[in-house]
Protein 1
Amino acid sequence: MNDNIRLSGLDPLNVMKYAVEVLPATRWAVGVVGLAAAAAIIMALGKSPIFAVVAVTGIFVAMVAMFIFSQLLTITSTAVRPVAIVLMWFMSITFMAAVVVVFTSAFFNGPWPLRDSLFKSALAARAGDFGHTEAAEAIKGLSTEALKQIVFLNDAHHKVGYFRANSNMYVLSSIPAEVKELDAQNLIAWSRPLDEYGEIVSRNGLRLIFGEVHSPQEVMIDRSSPDFEALKSFEYRLNNQGLSIFHFMLDTVIKQLEKK
């Protein structure tokens, strides 16, 4: 009957106090709720995702440390105390290691590329907010190096090979592996089908290479050959989808700079 009276009205504060009285361990659940609220505040007020992640991690570590020490103080049995001390040190070292990993990953991008992951998530979210769901999915499937390649490519046209000045000597370079990755996500526009260009190159004794670092290949091409203009004019660039990702990247960086 008293319990019913104490719980009348379903006042959340009264329910919480009563739960702690009945089961003291519930106070840790209340602590988790407070932690979640603190995390939400940090994420809302934080000037960057890195700051928010580090701050939330610090809260978690503080909570766990407080719990361990509070439990240790309640143990009086000499048989259990050594085990508790070992557990305390194990948990303390584990969480200290976790803090080091998170901090180094946030500020130095290693051993876990946290900074790159956060930027990619923010970029995909921004693309999704503007209704570019295909671009958002493409961003999630790209490596960090491929995203950097998008910045390098920007809205310019890029040649794979070129003719030396006043010469019929054609010089062919390799295509960055990241460009192939971008092409797999349908983000590259070629001036002519890549397979067709590869056949022309092969017909003239050259080899189309992706990613490998090597000396440029050279071959003399007769100006009267139909391959001359095909080789001279071949180029690639970001297509509309790739350009939209490039602009989202610029916009995301500008927004981050504005918050600082």
Note: The two ends are 58 Å apart (CA to CA).
Protein 2
Amino acid sequence: MAFWFVSVLLIVGFLSKSELVEAQLSDEAAVLAIHRELGVPGWSSNGTDYCNWVRLKCGANNSFVEMLDLSGLQLKVEFGKLRGLRSLNVSNNLLVGEIPDELMVLERLEEFQVSGNGLNGSIPHWVGNLSNLRVFTAYENEFLFNF
């Protein structure tokens, strides 16, 4: 099953006001799409501020979604694009395949948790190049290790 994770543009400090508004609208659309696909408990599609939903946190001034915790939801679906993500927890789902290379652009990512899935292949070398990454958990998968 092909799936893609969350990707990020890391030029927040360089965005014009109109680009910032466009990016925020992109986050809102992505979060609503995830909600339609998953029906995440505690999320609503009735126009409430998504930055106040459980399992999700936004940055200063509700600028971008920075933390998304979708652990334990038995995921089998694709994700939309979110900008400014710092924490992603998709542990204990039904994700399969390799960790996609699209994630190498997540330079702001500080926590990335993929444990308890059916991921395989090798852990990509670029994970070690994510300079802000402090927590990476990937146990209980089917990764190959070459020593």
Note: The two ends are 28 Å apart (CA to CA).
Protein 3
Amino acid sequence: MTDRKTGPAPTARLTQIRSWAAAALGLLAGLAALPVTARTEAPDIAAVRAADVLDFLGVNTHIAYTDSRYADAEKVIDALRFLRIKQVRDSIPNPAIPGNGWYNYPTVAQAGIRFNFLAGSGEVDLKDAVARLEQFEQRTPGAILSVEGPNEYNNWPFPFNGKTGNEAAVEFQNALDAGLRKSPLLKHIPMYNLTTWPPAFGRYDQLTIHAYPKGGEQPRAAIDQDIEKFSHDGRFFPASLTEIGYYTLQKRIGWGGVDALTQARLTLNTVLLTKQMGFSSIYLYELFDAYPDPDETEVERHFGLFTADYAPKPAAEALRRLTGALDDQGEGARSFTPEIVRVGLDVAEANLLVCQRSSGEFVLGLADERPVWDPETLAPLAVPNRPVRVSLDRPRLVVSATDAITGEALPVPDGPVNEIPVTLRGNAVLLVVK
């Protein structure tokens, strides 16, 4: 970590050296997964390590809520293992929260789960927060991936040192960052910026955004808008998308819910898109429908990848198919150099993420970005079949083709081919090629 005292003012991006380094990382992330859309000539693309996509993928939890479905730590662990997700975003453990839910954090961490800890909302004791982070790191070394500043404090007061609003939150962010840098146990841990609207910036290593696409729209437009709104000092990356999700409530409540199948479609497209765009991590919102809602009136109770009865929704099943395809147990899974390949599509409104396992096999995540939901009728749109071709740099064997949403095995060509014919029908498709 660079000495913050030699850097620019607290609301600037750390120090000049860190700024240049972060810019370089953002550029490399972009080069590692360039958008593949309709082109006359396929581009050269550096494939993404499959294991890196698994390390990029996380989900929000509320482990401290012992009156919710998160009260059972073993159920949390089981759900994460089902998804093959090992990163979660949650509040800093706090014994002051009723119910003793903070006891469950080490249990989850000891199952191999790592945390992005956020400062939370409302009044937070700074010294106590740093002390609790130190205790957690000491008890479960390596379990803290990152620390995030105050969360969406535009929705409720955030008092600090006799101040409120942006002034208080930015001052807290800077003080929390300083506390991490002074701690021998925590000084290596990256700091994520606070979240609010309009944007505010303290000291940070990565920017953050929360994106909630409205009316069942595809995620690209909402994310693009937020990148423009939350850029700082003329740039955005490196950054983490620490909340994004679709709620499964088909009523005219909130900004527009969807059915469970559409949640699955849009969630898969979100993961494929954001990794390609260069985000360092994504935390889907959220793991469980935390509370039952028999009257179907509470938007917040329907974002889960699992129901309030712990049953996986189609989105959880689809994510499991994706993470299963990306699972790489090879010795060099996180260290090998992926190949540069020439891959292209012959249509627009589609997106392709090119991944590679250490075995040499490629996993191509093909997303259909056409509209799939009608916000007026609150029903899925009829998405017509659309034949597309994925062009390859040389003849390759298609090992499998799978509809990521339904799990259906799709036809594959006999023998090596230069082009893979695929029929898009609104669902992401996973191609394994060697």
Note: Residues 1-40 have pLDDT under 50 and may be disordered.
